[in-house]
Amino acid sequence: MRLPIRIDEQRPEPLYHQIEVQLRGLILGGELQEGTALPSIRELAVSLKCSAITIRRVYQDLEHEGLIRTRQGAGTFVARVETAELDRHRVTRVMEELEKAVEAGLALHCTIEEIEDAFRQIMRTKSSEQRGDSEDDRE
Amino acid sequence: MTGNKDQRAIRLEGVRTQGAGHPLGPLDAEIPSGLVTAVVGPNGSGKSTLFRTLLGLEPIREGAAFVLESPVLPDSSETYKARIGFLAENPHPGDDRLTTREKASFASLWYPDWNEIRYRELLSRFGIDDTVTLSKLSKGMRRKAELAVAMAHEPELLLLDEPSSGLDPFAWKIMLEELQRYMEPGDRTLLLSSHVTEEVKRMADCILFMNGGRILGLFEKDRLFDEWRSLLIRGPAGGEKDLELLAKLPGWRQASYAGSGLCRVETDAMGKEDGYLQSCGFHVLESRRMELEDILNCLIVKEDNNSESA
């Protein structure tokens, strides 16, 4: 199976981190369901053009977090994930995305105040859109 | 799983050899087992001599080499060789009049673990008729035939000296798939030399850089690409004068003036240079990973500088 993991060579984060975050995301986001067989270490390493050492490290970390489990001779599988864990993951993910947006703002020499204003403006637009939607639903 | 961390498939301790005109060494290195290590270096850097040394084909003048825990000795009748598969850089002229089938028959006598089924599988994967005389095969076909023979006893250690030379892109892809399959059990070791960057990026776990008969370093591939960066920087002086400050950058490898008030600097300490850059008033416009060739080039320049100052 080919996992939808993409490595961004331009990001400063090390490869193992990029892979780990995305694989964790696939599991916690529900794309990879409990019991799904993951590729072997070598298979994933070759398909992502990274080393088996990196994949071994990612699998070990995720196994430690209880997200995957390795059965001797049978391979590596997605483990059962609790709902609370999934909720925590949603918040973590949104914070990561916001952080990227803030980084982009700072790179453009925006002040914190300007970024906060922009954020509030977007939130106002979005929440009125959502209110609009729900009013439409009622009609 | 991927090999025992403490195990070394190959250990070199101050090895010096005097091959056919190419002196090698002193070499010190430990090649991890269970992983793929790519040997990378310019022509004449000693890659082939290194392979020959590991097989006891080049007399070791100084130091000691251990392959699969066995010392490499001149009389070379050791049993460890039956656990190795080897593909030489150039075909052996003595094999010219043999068919692939005949060469395989010899190999099957020599290797107790010869796997006839695997041999047949490899032949069919590579599309080889093993009744044809080796000298009548094209360069690429012969390469594939010899690779099939070298891999058919499923050795613990596979030594491939530029396996992809002469292969067309389709054969190359099949070879990579077969090497991946070879590595799948996790306890086998592959050492291959290559000039093909794509091959190294896809296959290698570790990279051994060589130049001028010396080892420049053995690196974990991903850490190498994570840590080595090329930065485009605007400095406080906005000109060549910034290079003086940049020379003190942690991990500095080389730097040059890029024009328009910008400098380019290569560093091998990704993340550790931020503090210094900020305190000097540098602004990083771009940070990108480096290509294998550029990293090799930096290592060669450093080696040259070292030997000049020595």
Automatic annotation (TrEMBL), chain A:
One MF term in the entry's GO annotations: DNA-binding transcription factor activity
Pfam families assigned: GntR
Domain HTH gntR-type per the UniProt entry, residue ranges: 13-81
Entry coiled-coil feature ranges: none
Record-linked SUPFAM superfamilies: Winged helix' DNA-binding domain
Entry keyword set: DNA-binding, Transcription, Transcription regulation
Alphabetical list of InterPro entries matching this protein: Tscrpt_reg_HTH_GntR, WH-like_DNA-bd_sf, WH_DNA-bd_sf
CDD domains found in the cross-reference section: WHTH_GntR
PANTHER family: HTH-TYPE TRANSCRIPTIONAL REPRESSOR YTRA (PTHR38445:SF9)
UniProt protein name: GntR family transcriptional regulator
Species, as recorded: Cohnella pontilimi
UniProtKB/TrEMBL annotation, chain B:
InterPro entries: AAA+_ATPase (IPR003593), ABC_transporter-like_ATP-bd (IPR003439), ABC_transporter-like_CS (IPR017871), ABC_Transporter_VariousFunc (IPR051782), P-loop_NTPase (IPR027417)
Coiled-coil segments on the chain, per record: none
ABC transporter domain residues: 7-237
GO molecular function per UniProt: ATP binding; ATP hydrolysis activity
Keyword Cytoplasm on entry: no
Entry keywords, A to Z: ATP-binding, Nucleotide-binding, Transport
Descriptive protein name: ABC transporter ATP-binding protein
